Amino acid sequence: MTALGLLSAGLGVAFVGCSSDDTSGGGGGTDAGKDTSTDAPATGPKQSGTLLDFPVGTKVKDATITLGSGSGTSGADGKYSIATTKDTPFFMRVTHSQYLTLIEQEWQLSGDADRGPTQYISQGVKPTLLALLESSDTPKVKQDKGILAVGIVLEGACTEDGGVVIKIDTGAATDAGTDAGDGGGDAGGSDAGSGDTDNIVRYFTSVTSVAPMNQPQQTTKNQNTPAVAIYNVTPGENVQLSVTPSAASGCTVVKQYPHADPKASNIKYTGKIKVEAGTNTFSFARVFLTK
Questions:
Q1: Beta bridge partners of 121
Q2: DSSP state of 217
Q3: Where is the segment annotated Disordered (predicted)?
Q4: Helix, strand, or coil (residue 129)
Q5: Do residues 58 and 50 lie in contact, with contact meaning Cβ atoms separated by under 8 Å?
Q6: pLDDT of 222 strictly over 50
Q7: What is the rounded distance in angstroms from the CA atom of residue 168 to the CA atom of residue 199?
Q8: Would you say residue 231 has pLDDT above 60?
Q9: Which of 61-65, 225-229, 251-255 shows the lowest mean pLDDT across its residues?
């Protein structure tokens, strides 16, 4: 899949490193030598992919990728190929001393799968990202809370072009955004309800700009860049989202899991999302709309 969408201010655009179904690669850097990744265990399906620095696009070597029972490191070419236990869910975790830890939503492998490029955010970019999340009228990012980026994936005949509302679902009346329906509602409002009022939602209208807070997202078919970033999320291993497509689109939210990746069918998502506390870790998840 492609990368994230948030960094204006000199860096271009993006937000949090996420895996990509786009296997075209991207970015600069040199392919210096063969893949030095390791496989563990030796049996079971393998997930392969490439780690790319954001925003430079160079290959990231010596990152540790953990896929449940399997782990390995990226080679000089940024590539990895790691075996794990078949049909056993895991949260993909990527760590490196010079990068932010990335936690992908939970999935499992039913066979070998190419994850494609994963854009990986360096520590040097973090201050700019945090500044883009915060504003003068919203809370600061809290160290005991987490940050989650969410991308929208459109399947079938769904061509949703705006009005998707994404919120944290705490099981209470939390509403971190405004349900604007087809985009014609109150884009500036916020109803915190009686639940966790700490989480703040930032919507993006494109990969080159940040939309006003609580603005519904304009989406593109099979988009995997973040539609929203949610910060000050209570950490946990089963964070729930509430997703409302615009009524005019006729699209519905996929709720049946496991759900196969539309471009890598051996990757099957479980629907679980994990968020950890602190600003050195970012989580990424997808929601699927279909028609």
A1: 54
A2: B
A3: 22-53
A4: helix
A5: no
A6: yes
A7: 8
A8: yes
A9: 225-229
Assess contact for 33 and 236: CB atoms under 8 A: no
∠ at Cα 115 (112, 120), nearest 5°?
A: 145
For the chain, give the longest Cα–Cα distance.
56
Q: What is the pTM of this model?
A: 0.78
Burial bucket for residue 180 (CB in 10 Å: 0-12, 13-18, 19+)? buried
Distance of CA 216 to the CA centre of its chain: 18
Q: How far apart are CA 145 and CA 278, in angstroms?
A: 6
Of the candidates 134, 104, 129, the one whose C-alpha atom is nearest the C-alpha of residue 276 is 104
For range 90-112, the mean pLDDT? 97
Beta-bridge partners for 73: 64
Distance CA 126, CA 120 (A): 11
Domain ranges of the chain: 142-260+273-290
CA distance 172 to 162: 26
List, in sequence order, every residue forming a beta bridge with 81; answer none if it has no partner: 48
Residue type, 288: F
Using the structure block, give the residue that is written with the tokens 């993909």. Answer: 92
CB 273 within 8 A of CB 93: no
Q: Say which range, 9-13, 94-98, 189-193, 225-229, has the weakest mean pLDDT.
A: 189-193
